[in-house]
Fold:
Amino acid sequence: MSQDGGGIDLETSLGYLLKEASSALRQAMEAVLRPLGMTVTHYSCLELLAQRPGLSNSELARGAFVTRQSMNVLLQTLERDGYVTRPATAPVGKVLPTRLTPRGRRSLAKATAAVRSVEVRMLGGMTQAEQSSAFTSLQSMIHSLRDDAAGG
Amino acid sequence: MSQDGGGIDLETSLGYLLKEASSALRQAMEAVLRPLGMTVTHYSCLELLAQRPGLSNSELARGAFVTRQSMNVLLQTLERDGYVTRPATAPVGKVLPTRLTPRGRRSLAKATAAVRSVEVRMLGGMTQAEQSSAFTSLQSMIHSLRDDAAGG
DNA sequence: TGACTCATGTCAATATTCTGACATAGATTA
DNA sequence: TAATCTATGTCAGAATATTGACATGAGTCA
Structure:
């Protein structure tokens, strides 16, 4: 309709569609993770640690797209429940490198399978070429948005 | 690296990239909306009402990707502050059609301009063809994820 | 008409995340 | 060395969103 000068047409807005897709993905992940007693952030943290052992609280926070305060709360729970371990004192600086315990690894294995099924489903209707171009497009969007200068 | 049988390689995962892009967009929107004293959900609600006057609480919730309970709290605040109006009694059923007040429209105008600048920036590095294919890809992902059957 | 199902609006309690703040450790610079 | 800047871990309070629950109204079906 009359998008010019008016509002942002949500029907054709790529930003809105991006949010819609992200929301659908999150909901699908929550659905398969819930039976495992795991939240998305919880899973993200474990998956990050599996791929990059020794990540710090702040690095995990950035990787899971939450604040370091939120990640800190999560890590304390995960540590208490025996999914991860952190040294009592920092080897260097204030950074506490975190690692998965065997229990954490076991827990992650089930979650990864569940999440993989979601991703496979999401990619189901796309050709390899489409996936490839979607990848490039998303990277482009991220790059443009990261060029600080908020006010323009 | 060794993604087979192991974890989900976050470096090459389209799902992770989707979350990354969505997070970057949200952060950029928060940055430009904050000076206006508005949150993203707050803005989304107003924008939805501008395009589809008379939307109900539940419909607004779905459009803004929050629960109807969360939207209800927001609407009560917006109504109290004079940005929207709702009839005291439902014209039909329990549905209360919500509408923007002149004040709500004024407030939205500034926000829309700010958000538009973010979307323009996001699209800056993409050709028209890329935007078009990104749109199709995102729609495909949403469609695949919406095909319920969570567990497979 | 009556029973059933579904969607809605709303209240309450809980959970999650964020903002603000502080002390500390390393790097940078003079 | 000393001052400054940046990044980190963490505590506390506030904002935000969610789950759970209930009553109500509309639609369906017998």
Residues 56-58, 68-69, 72, 76, 90, 93-96 of chain A lie near DNA strand D (CB under 10 Å from a C1'). Chain A touches chain B through 63 residues (CB under 8 Å). The two ends of chain A are 27 Å apart (CA to CA).
